[in-house]
Amino acid sequence: MAKQTIIPFGPQHPVLPEPIHLDLVLEDEKVVQAIPSIGFIHRGLEKLVEKKEYTELMYVTERICGICAFGHNWGYCHAIEILLNVEVPERAEYLRVMWHEMSRVHSHLLWLGLLADAFGFESLFMHCWRLREGILDLFEKTTGGRVIFSVNKIGGVHRDVSPEMLLEISTVIAGMKKEYDELAKVFIEDVSVKNRTVGVGKVSKEDAAALCAVGPTARGSGVPFDIRSTGHSIYGKLGFEPIVEEGGDCYARALVRVKEVYQSMEMIQKIIAEMPEGEISVNVKGKPEGEFMARVEQPRGESCYYVKGNGTKNLERMRVRTPTNINVPFLVSALAGCELADVPVIVLSIDPCISCTER
Amino acid sequence: MSYVTKSPWLIHYDGSSCNGCDIEVLACLTPMYDAERFGIINTGNPKHADIFLVTGGVNEQNKNVVKQIYDQMPEPKVVVAVGICACSGGIFEECYNILGGADKVIPVDVYVPGCAARPEQIIDGIVQGLGVLAEKRAAMGKAPAATATAAAKLQDKPEEKPAAEPEDKPE
Asked: Which pLDDT score, from 0 to 100, does residue B79 have?
């Protein structure tokens, strides 16, 4: 047996925007084992239910993660709405799904950029982030915030979007799609991208299912698991079909996300075309009692929000299960047996969001 | 920014933030805002960095990492706390694990509040940090005193300079 060396990876590392620590056990250049350790961003926000009222907690849930902030807020609001027996107006549901799918487009573009950066394709990284700014501008115009925009409320949404603005969103997304075609082509066809991703970090369908992987990580290994396909909210009306790739390597996981951007763009156009008229929120009274678990498909995968109320203004318990937390065992399995130089690409291929993971 | 003769390099570390500010820090360097055109590079190595951008309220486990990065940076160095969490703990101030701001661990020179801090604000914070950097350089005896005075002037009275220029031209 060759001599083993341990190389620490993180918490501060050029490729990671967030801290996670991995001890990589190497034999020559091969990784035989990866031992993750987390806790650098643990804030303990679930404990805040004791100090903040259930209405204030909305702003805390939004700050679980700054990239998929809208989805976290939506999941929490949905759970409270069920406990309070509130029926959300249809227009509010349409607006929520529109913002959620826009979040997915910006999150996936951000990730595609980071992936390009991980294998040293700097100009591709810049182009992905340039395109992403278009979505952030739309967020700013419709809600006022760029990344965190508390637009949800229990019983609906705070702001309506005018027909002129809807038309503008539609035009901007259509324009973005044309530019995105060129970027997508690079990710799908470029030889240098393929050299770094095809066959790297392979995990079979059986292993991915056994490791309970979620989101594009699971779908890249051929597991057709997507909460949106249950048809919750208005996804049933939009005729949603999950995107699945069979490869199981970094290339397949990138391909799933490349295609999901197209899918989300189409869904946004469909939502704008079908947007119903009416109220955007209802008044909510009462204090939550009972328990409920809401599920939302975040850009990174399934996310669960468990709330338990006891009839007072403070909840008894709130628990969040986030996608990256579930995908860490998948990552450890994908890292075993890879080359040291491929570690950054594999770590990024699960789209790690450490802020979500540790809350 | 006429007193800036060298391009500062940045190091960014996420000290227990929610990601919002970190993404905005990266957005500063990408084509929309493009601070890189001035040669301001986000480096991964503390030993190459002049300005330390720290986000988040810093938790118990992260405390030592933030301290180590700061200690590894060569003098003169400037710390910019990005986001309200790094300034005071923000919404997570009451959390059991949060120390409540980057200044509990390392000395902070510039505070950039906001949740999430906008790229314009972050760039403004970095520009103010450049003034502090010039002062620190002068204090170490490495830069001409004139540069430092110009920097200090620009920081104290930012409106005076544009007013003075039109007067000069007719003469």
From this structure: 92
Q: To the nearest whole percent, how much of chain A has pLDDT over 70? A: 99
Instruction: Assess whether pLDDT exceeds 70 at residue B147.
Output: no
Residue in A12, A18, A146 closest to B19 by CB: A18
**SS3 labels along chain A:** CCCEEEEEECCCCCCCCCCCEEEEEEECCEEEEEEEECCCCCCCHHHHHHCCCCCCHHHHHHCCCCCCHHHHHHHHHHHHHHHCCCCCCHHHHHHHHHHHHHHHHHHHHHHHHHHHHHCCCHHHHHHHHHHHHHHHHHHHHHHCCCCCCCCEECCEECCCCCHHHHHHHHHHHHHHHHHHHHHHHHHHHCHHHHHHHCCCCCCCHHHHHHCCCCHHHHHCCCCCCCHHHHCCCCCCCCCCCCCCCCCCCHHHHHHHHHHHHHHHHHHHHHHHHHCCCCCCECCCCCCCEEEEEEEEEECCEEEEEEEEEECCCCCCEEEEECHHHHHHHHHHHHHCCCEHHHHHHHHHHCCCCHHHHHC
> For the residues A138-162, what does the mean pLDDT come to?
86
Q: Tell which CATH classification among 3.40.30.10, 3.40.630.30, 3.40.50.12280, 3.90.1170.50 matches the domain B10-157.
A: 3.40.50.12280
| A19: closest chain B residue by CA | B14
Interface ipTM: 0.80
Contact A17 B26 (CB under 8 A): yes
Domain A4-358: homologous superfamily in CATH: Cytochrome-c3 Hydrogenase, chain B (1.10.645.10)
Measure B155 CA to nearest chain A CA, in Å.
Answer: 28
